[in-house]
Structure formats: structure tokens, C-alpha cells
Amino acid sequence: MVATGSVTQSNKRTWQQRYTVVSLCALSLFVCYIDRVNISVAILPMQQEFGWSESVKGLVLSSFFVGYLVMQVGGGILANRYGGKIVLGVAVIWWSLFTILTPLAAGITLPVLLLVRVLMGVGEGASTPAAFSMFRYWVPASERSRAVAMFSSGAPLGTLLALTTTGWIVTQFGWPMVFYGFGAIGFVWAIAWYLLVKDDPRKDARVSAAELDLLTQTGTQETQHAPIPWKQFFAERAVWAIFVAAFATNWSLYMLLSWLPSYFATAHGLSVTQAGIYSAAPWLTMFATINIAAWIADGLIKRGLSITATRKLMQSIGLIGSASCLLLVGFANTSVMALLTICGSLGLLAFCYSGFAPNALDIAPGHAETLWGLINTVATVPGIIGVAITGWLVDISGTFMSAFALAATLNIISTIIWITFSTGKKVID
Fold first, then answer.
1. What is the structure's pLDDT at 2?
2. With contact defined as beta carbons under 8 Å apart, do 52 and 46 qualify?
3. Residue 93: CA atoms inside 13 Å, Cβ hemisphere, count?
């Protein structure tokens, strides 16, 4: 428990310790994405150097997601057993190491590169379930949309930095330096994480009495290591609704994440640096709207709209809006028009992070990290098959439009299922 003197002093603090926890979790996702996305730009000179086809390039891009998928449930189980702090800290160090090893692996042979990318994915796969384990204890119900949105903001911000700087780094220092420089950042984050964060707010001297009361009153301090209700997870329609929503959302997300620089380079003839800069703008749009949507969602709930109705509304705006913009890309005759429609697609897709993303905390607050591991396992499948299928479709059709149309179709189908079966009520004890 917190010492009485520390509690009295910390009651006067404006900055609450839960903000530090959520901010560092968001920074971990930021590091996760700069390490994940840099290859989307760096792969252009890598492809030229090693003579890869579009299909081989798709294989390299998608191999990461194999390890990422494998560790989703494992990350949730480990976080449930050992706590989110240790699991997230080890995960960041792990993937940072394999990021640094990427150039060495590429210079050996393609299978070695694929193995290193898979192992990097293993580390990143454990990160989000571990963060949700921290949220389980550190985020009250009234702040879930904003906390998940702030955490999720690390993805577009990391993507933005990677896309805007990778091309310049490649031009000035060569593509290997991208992996060396970005990989080192994770080790700096790990130092701050271990010094500033604890698993349990009841054991953190930085937590004020008022903040601790808020966290305990909202029921976020369930006993750790409770038995995991596996059967109930798969028996609830609300869980399957999240599975479908996460799959569709991430199909569009990972397709654009991996292929956007190649789209601008191939379809509009931009250079490596220009393609990176153009590809960054949609992620800046997503960063802005992901937080705007979260404030809207929490505001609607505060004003009396049910959590169920709020989650349905946010997810539907995200999927239908994104699908509409993806279909409009086909009418874009210039790179600027294409950029605007893709900004619209990712900007609207950000509403989903106030839809399906906090929903695990709504329906199963006591098992959010494990349930999120399952959800993200399903959501990672598009990273494997969707990214690879995109490369195949581009090879056989000579255009990206067939890939965009497929993503839009999945969004529409998912919206129907989400509206029918999702809920914001607690259904799993």
C-alpha cells in the first residue's frame, strides 16, 4: 500500500500516475510501429539490391505477422501470470534487438531474413496484450475510450515518423542504418519503463489517495491470475463480433501500412523519399481523428448514451466511412487526389478504435489482456494473408484497385455483423 505521507502530498498533483502509465504504453506502441513500418519504405531499395519480385516483397512484409500472431494469446497469458510491466518491457527489448539484426539477416539469405522478421513479430505480438493488462488496473471505466485511443495513437505517430524519415535516412546513410537507429530507441524506452512504472497502483507511491480511490471504485483491481474462461470467450456472440470487426479493421490498416509507399511509387511515379512523405499524411490524419473520436465516444457515454450504442456508432462510422473512401481512390487521377481519399480512409477508420478496441474492457474487464490477445490473433491474420494477397493482386492485375475493393467489401460485411451482435455490457466474469 501507499505510505500515508506520500498519499497526502500526491493528492495535490495535477498529473496523475495513470497518465504516466498510459503515456509510456503509448510510447511502446510508437516504438513498435517505427520498427515495424520502416521496412515499408526501406524495402524499395532492398528490392532493387536483392532483385525481389512483388510477390517476394509481399512475403518479406508479411513474415513479421507470423510471429506477431503466434504471440498474441501467449502475451495475454504471460501478462495475466507475470504482470504487464515485465512482459511489455521484455517484449520491447526483444523486438528492438531483432530490428537491429535485420540488415545482417538480409545479407545472409532470404530464409534467414524471414526468420528474423518472424522473431521480431514475436516480441511485438506480446506488447498489446501486456498494455491491456496494465489498463485493467490503471484505467477507470470512464476513461477507457481515451486511454485506448491515446495508446493506439502510438501506431499512426510511429508510422508517421518512420515514413517521413526512412526515405531520408536511406538516401543519406543507406537502408541498413534505418534498422540500427530505430532499433536502439527501444532500449531507451525500456529504462524509463522499469524506473517509472509498477504493475499495481496500490504499490505505487506516486499514486494519490483520490486516484487510488477512483481506480478501486471502478472495479479495475480484480484479483490477478484468475482462471481464464476459454469456453465462455468462444460462446459469446459479442466476442465473435469483436473478432470480425478487428479482422476487417486491420485488413485495411495493414494493407495501407505495408503497401502505401509502393502504391504511390508504382501508381503515381513518386521517388522513395516522396512516397514516404505522401504515405505519412494519412497517418497524421488518423492520429488526429483517433483522439477526436475517443473524446466524442467518452462524451456520449457521459451524457447518457449507452456504451453499447456508442461502440456500435463509432465502429460503423469507421468501417463504412473507410470503405467509401477506398472505393473513391479509383477515381483519383492525380497523386494529390489519391492522397486526399486515403487520408479520408484512414481518418475515418480511426473511429474503430473507439468501437471494437475498448470493447474487451467493456465485456470482460477481468480478463481483458487474454481476450485482447485472442482478438489481436484474429486481427493479425490480415497482416499475413491480406498483405500477401495485396502483392498477388497487384502482380496479376497491375493495379491496386482490386485490393482496395476487397478491403471495402470486408468493411461493409463486418459492419452488418457488428451492429447485429456487439454489446457494451459486461458478459464475461
1. 38
2. yes
3. 11
Distance, in Å, from the CA atom of 133 to the CA atom of 358, rounded to the nearest integer, reads 13
Under a CB-based contact definition with an 8 Å cutoff, are residues 272 and 41 in contact? Answer: yes
**CB burial class (10 A; 0-12, 13-18, 19+) of residue 202?**
middle
* Residue 47 CB-half CA count within 13 A: 18
Taking alpha carbons only, the member of 55, 8, 165 closest to residue 395 is 55
Residue 193 is predicted with a pLDDT of: 95
The reported pLDDT for the residue numbered 1 is: 37
Give one word for 269, left, alpha or beta, with left for phi > 0 and alpha for psi -120 to 50.
left
Q: Cβ neighbours of residue 109 under 8 Å, at least 6 residues apart? A: none
pLDDT at 9: 43
Q: Which are the contacts of 157, defined by CB distance < 8 A and separation ≥ 6?
A: 30, 33, 283, 287
Decide: 401 and 330 in contact? Cβ < 8 Å: yes
Residue 226 pLDDT: 65
Helix (H) or strand (E) holding 180: helix 176-196
Q: Which residues contact 304 (CB under 8 A, 6 or more apart)?
A: none
Q: What angle do CA 188, 190, 196 make, to 5 degrees?
A: 110
d(CA 248, CA 250): 6
Predicted local confidence at residue 16, as pLDDT: 85
Mean pLDDT by 10 residues, the chain (429 residues): 40 75 94 88 86 81 83 84 90 95 91 94 90 86 82 85 84 91 94 90 83 70 65 93 96 84 78 73 88 91 92 97 92 87 94 92 83 86 82 84 92 97 89
On whether the CB atoms of residues 425 and 362 are closer than 8 A, the answer is yes
Q: What is the pLDDT of residue 319?
A: 97
| Domain architecture of the chain: domains with CATH | 14-198+232-421 (1.20.1250.20)
